[in-house]
Amino acid sequence: MLHHLNRRTAFGRQEAANDPVTAAYLAAGMRLVSMHVGPAEKTEEAVGLDEGSVDRSVLGFLSQRAVAAEMANNPEPFPRCGNVSTMRSTWKSQSDYIADLLSFAFSPGYYPESYQEVRAFGAETLAGDGPFAEEVEDLAYRVMQAIEEMVSFRLQLIASACAERSEVTRQALEAKYHRAHCQWKQVYAECLEARGLRLRPGMTLDQLTAILTSVVEGAMLREIGDPTAEIRDPVERRSLLGTAALALLNGCLEPTGEPDGRSVAQALEAMVVRSRCCGPDRLTTPDAALLPAHPAHMHMQQ
Questions:
Q1: Which domains does the chain have, with CATH numbers?
Q2: Is 50 exceeded by the pLDDT of residue 290?
Q3: What is the pTM of this model?
Q4: pLDDT for the residue numbered 187
């Protein structure tokens, strides 16, 4: 996981990776990340940035001097004595330290237990026999709750902005996304099989997983950047993420036993045609010939 340690041999790098001092420096760095980009304390005493203040150095709070000083606040059993010289003996440059810190922060082992529990809960309920729409909305709310507490998500947002200019940052993010994608893809696959659903033609499970991940991150980004947007309703435990997930699933899925064989685009077009033919005051069913169908159905009609 730590690929930038200042050691010449693989054995030396492995020893340094398992050194308590290395772990202590990483722990101190993550605490600084939490203090500077983690969830703000929601108290009247909490003091934010001065109006108009801009931090020009995105990760400037992770300087070697700051990390070494933060070592003194390490909890047991981490070492508490740090200095710039010993840190430089572990990482040749500050860029190497930050690269390893990102890999550490995005690793599954650093994910809070609450997030792991939410994913396990989602796998169980989505594949269960409860009201599907309610389960989707409830899981969406739980996911947002868990991500809100994740310091690594705030760090991920910063890292994403720098990824185009940093290959090591991009690689750390790529590995993080790949792991999460595989885990949630498995959850969705088990859900579709258990619920007797399938994806519409032209849609893949990889695409659905990527879309849902993007919607989750977009909802969290909006909530963090604009707390007045009312992305979540804590009273009803509902969220715009849940509404978006329902809309996506409604458009992308169809029953396995009675599929209409239409792609997402064809299903939307068919709905528009029905509306145009029937109108609000007409109850007749439009001619089937007017409705775009999947090529396989057209072949069957012939």
A1: 10-39+57-102 (no CATH), 109-255 (1.10.357), 264-301 (no CATH)
A2: no
A3: 0.75
A4: 96
